[in-house]
Amino acid sequence: VKNEPVQPKTSVSSANIKSVLSPLPGVILDVKVKEGDKVAKGTTVLVMEAMKMENNIATECEGVVSSVKVKNGQSVLQNEVLIEIQ
Which of 8, 15, 61, 74 reaches 20 to 30 Å from 32, CA-CA? Predict the structure, then answer.
């Protein structure tokens, strides 16, 4: 079985805030950014465990982290907002 990278979905709201969404249900293992951090496209913002595998979740946009909606050890559902980038 080949480990393919998981591509998170990004939603865009009218306030020019982009959300990094959970691609699968899982548990947050490590949040790698905090509010105010600048991120480039492709930056790993957190690591989550889903289906007994660790998945690096990366951004599909660049900007400044405006809010982190999750913490280590938290369970998340698919399409739940993890991080917002402005």
Answer: 15
